[in-house]
C-alpha cells in the first residue's frame, strides 16, 4: 500500500537527518524577521538572515517541513485553487538547506537518491529544468546522474514578467535569490499539458515537484545583485505534490489528507459528488484559514487579516453554492476533520482549536447575513449592465454586502466572464474615500469579536505582536 502523507513527511526529514541535517520545526505563517513579506511562502523564509550572512546557526545543514501560504504578494496562488491539480493557498514545503556547506553537486545527488532510490520513482518519468546558462548543473545532471540531454530543459529569465515561472528563484522583490534546477514528474500522456518551456507548460501533465535553488545573490532594491557571503542551497518540494506521485494519483486533491477533508466537506454540505470543485476549494481554504488563525491572524479589513477574511468568505460562498449556508455556521465544522489529519504534525491546531472554531463561526455568522442578498444584487447589476460590473458596483457589493472584489471576480470567472478593465482601479478609489471617511469618524474596519480568554491565545509567541498591530488585528478584537 502507498505511503500516507504523514509518512512521506517523515521520510523526507529522516533522509536528510541521515545526511547530517538538523531538523528544524516549521516557523509560523507570519514571518517574524521580514516586514517585506505578507506570509511565509517558502521553507527558506525563516533562514533568510542565515543566507544573507547576518545570522549564524549552530548547524550548516537544515531540513524542515514548512507551512506556507501563497495568497498574496509575489507568490499568489489564490486564483489557481480549484482550477489546477497542484495549487493550494496553504501547503507544506519540504526543504533541505545548506548554509555555505554543500552546493550543486550534493544537492542534486541527494534529490535523486531520495526520489529514485528511497522512494523508487521510475527515472523515465522525471525530467528537469536548469537555468539557461547553468552548464555546471547540466553537467551534473547529464554526466553524473546520467539523465539524457533531452530531459534537461534550459529555461531563461521571465523577461520582466514578475509572476511568470522561470529558473531564477526569488523570495520577493529583494533578498536572497539565485538560479535553480527543478524536477518535474510526467503524470502521463492522458493529461493535457506540455513540458516546461513549451507553450502549454501550464497544463497539469508535467508537474513540478521539487525546486533546488542555488542561492548566490542578494537582490537589492535597485534590482542589482550582490553576491552572498557563501553559496547556499535552498530546496522546496510540495508535500502534497510528492504525495500525489507516491500515491499514484494525479491531483493533490486525491491524496489521503485531502480526501479526508473532502469527504468531511461532502458530509457537512450533504453533497454526493465528491469531485465537486467547491469541495476542493473548501478543503483547501480550511487549511489556510485555520493555520492563519493559529499563527495569530484574525479576519479584519486590513493587511493580513483582510487576506484571511477574503479566503474565509470565498469558502463560505462555496458553502452557499452547495446550499449549506446556515446561521450556526458550517465552515468551522471542518476544523475537527483537519485536526484528524494534521493535528499530529501540528499540535498547535489542537491547542487553539476553540479559537479557530470561534473565529470562523463569527465570520460566517457575519457574512451569512448579507451574502444571499449580495448575490441577488450582483445578478441585478449583471442584468442592468449587460454582464458588466463597474467599480462603484464592486464597492457597493463590498460595502453593503461584505463581498470583496476578488470574490466577485471569482464568481464572474465561473460564469466565463471578467471584470472590465479599470473596474478594480475605480473600486480602489471608492474604497479610499470610504477609508478617509472612516478615519475622520475614528472608526476601524470591523473584525471578528471574540471573548477575552481566546484573545489571550493570540498573544504574541515571540514575534507575532508587532505584525498584528500593524495589520489592525488588535484593534478589531479589543
Ligand atoms: P508552480 O510553477 O507549479 O506554480 P512554483 O514554481 O511557483 O510552482 P516554487 O516557488 O519553486 O513553486 O516552490 C517550490 C515547490 O513548492 C514547488 O516545486 C511545488 O512542489 C511546491 N508548491 C509551490 N506552490 C505551491 C502551491 N500553491 N501549492 C502546493 N504546492 C506548491
Ligand atoms: Mg507558482
Ligand atoms: Mg514553477
Ligand atoms: Mg518553481
What features would you describe in this structure?
- The protein contains 18 helices and 9 strands.
- It is of the alpha+beta class and 478 residues long.
- Strands 1, 2, 3, 4, 5, 6, 7, 8 and 9 form a 9-stranded mixed sheet that branches.
- Helix 8 packs across helix 11 (353-368).
- It is globular.
- It binds adenosine-5'-triphosphate and magnesium ion (3 copies).
- Keywords: Aminoacyl-tRNA synthetase, ATP-binding, Coiled coil, Cytoplasm, Ligase, Metal-binding, Nucleotide-binding, Protein biosynthesis, RNA-binding, tRNA-binding, Zinc.
- Its main location: cytoplasm.
- Its EC number is 6.1.1.7.
Give short descriptive properties of this protein.
binds magnesium ion, disordered C terminus, single chain, 9 strands, alpha+beta, globular, 478 residues, binds adenosine-5'-triphosphate
What's this, in brief?
Its cofactor is Zn(2+). By secondary structure, the chain is of the alpha+beta class.
Task: Report on the biggest sheet.
Answer: 9 strands, mixed
Mean pLDDT: 90
Instruction: Give the structural class.
Output: alpha+beta
CA-CA gap between termini:
51 Å
Q: Which ligands appear in the coordinates?
A: adenosine-5'-triphosphate, magnesium ion
Fraction of residues in helices?
40-55%
Write down the Rg.
23 Å
Poorly predicted runs are 160-164, 459-478
Shape: globular
* Number of separate strands: 9
Number of H/I helices: 18
Beta-strand share of residues: 15-25%
Question: SSE order, as H and E?
Answer: HEHEEHEHEEEEEHHHHHHHHHHHHHH
Amino acid at each position: 500500500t502507498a505511503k500516507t502523507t504523514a509518512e512521506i513527511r517523515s521520510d523526507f526529514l529522516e533522509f536528510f537527518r541521515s545526511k547530517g541535517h538538523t531538523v528544524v520545526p516549521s516557523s509560523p505563517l507570519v514571518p517574524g524577521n521580514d516586514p517585506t513579506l505578507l506570509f511565509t511562502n517558502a521553507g527558506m523564509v525563516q533562514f533568510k538572515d542565515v543566507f544573507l550572512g547576518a545570522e549564524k546557526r549552530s548547524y550548516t545543514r537544515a531540513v524542515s517541513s514548512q507551512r506556507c501560504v501563497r495568497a498574496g504578494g509575489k507568490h499568489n496562488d489564490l486564483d489557481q485553487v480549484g482550477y489546477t491539480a497542484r495549487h493550494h493557498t496553504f501547503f507544506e514545503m519540504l526543504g533541505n538547506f545548506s548554509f555555505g556547506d554543500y552546493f550543486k553537486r550534493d544537492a542534486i545527488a541527494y534529490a535523486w537518491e531520495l526520489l529514485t532510490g528511497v522512494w523508487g520513482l521510475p527515472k523515465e518519468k522525471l525530467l528537469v529544468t536548469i537555468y539557461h546558462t547553468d552548464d555546471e548543473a547540466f553537467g551534473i545532471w547529464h554526466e553524473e546522474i546520467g539523465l539524457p540531454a533531452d530531459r534537461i530543459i534550459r529555461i531563461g529569465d521571465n523577461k520582466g514578467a514578475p509572476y511568470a515561472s522561470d529558473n531564477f528563484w526569488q523570495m520577493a522583490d529583494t533578498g536572497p535569490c539565485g538560479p535553480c534546477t527543478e524536477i518535474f514528474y510526467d503524470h502521463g500522456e492522458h493529461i493535457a499539458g506540455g513540458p516546461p518551456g513549451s507553450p502549454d507548460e501550464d497544463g497539469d501533465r508535467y508537474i513540478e515537484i521539487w525546486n533546488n535553488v542555488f542561492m548566490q545573490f542578494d537582490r537589492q532594491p535597485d534590482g542589482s545583485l550582490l553576491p552572498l557571503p557563501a553559496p547556499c542551497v535552498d530546496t522546496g518540494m510540495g508535500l502534497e505534490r510528492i504525495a500525489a506521485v507516491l500515491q499514484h494519483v494525479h491531483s493533490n486533491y486525491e491524496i489521503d489528507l485531502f480526501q479526508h477533508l473532502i469527504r468531511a466537506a461532502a458530509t457537512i454540505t450533504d453533497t454526493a459528488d465528491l469531485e465537486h470543485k467547491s469541495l476542493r476549494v473548501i478543503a483547501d481554504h480550511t487549511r489556510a484559514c485555520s493555520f492563519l488563525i493559529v499563527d495569530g491572524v484574525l479576519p479584519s479589513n486590513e493587511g493580513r487579516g483582510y487576506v484571511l477574511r477574503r479566503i474565509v468568505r470565498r469558502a463560505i460562498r462555496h458553502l452557499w453554492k452547495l446550499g449549506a449556508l446556515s446561521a450556526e455556521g458550517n465552515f468551522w465544522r471542518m476544523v475537527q476533520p483537519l485536526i484528524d489529519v494534521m493535528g499530529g504534525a501540528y499540535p498547535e491546531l489542537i491547542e487553539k482549536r476553540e479559537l479557530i472554531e470561534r473565529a470562523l463561526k463569527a465570520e460566517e455568522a457575519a457574512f451569512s447575513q448579507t451574502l444571499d442578498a449580495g448575490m441577488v444584487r450582483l445578478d441585478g447589476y449583471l442584468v442592468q449592465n449587460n454582464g458588466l460590473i463597474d467599480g462603484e458596483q464592486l464597492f457597493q457589493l463590498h460595502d453593503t454586502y461584505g463581498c470583496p472584489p476578488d470574490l466577485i471576480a471569482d464568481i464572474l470567472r465561473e460564469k466565463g466572464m471578467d471584470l472590465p478593465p479599470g473596474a478594480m482601479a475605480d473600486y480602489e478609489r471608492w474604497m479610499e474615500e470610504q477609508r478617509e471617511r472612516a478615519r475622520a469618524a475614528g472608526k476601524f474596519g470591523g473584525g471578528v469579536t471574540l471573548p477575552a480568554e481566546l484573545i489571550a491565545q493570540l498573544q504574541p509567541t515571540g514575534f507575532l505582536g508587532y505584525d498584528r498591530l500593524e495589520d489592525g488585528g488588535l484593534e478589531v478584537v479589543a
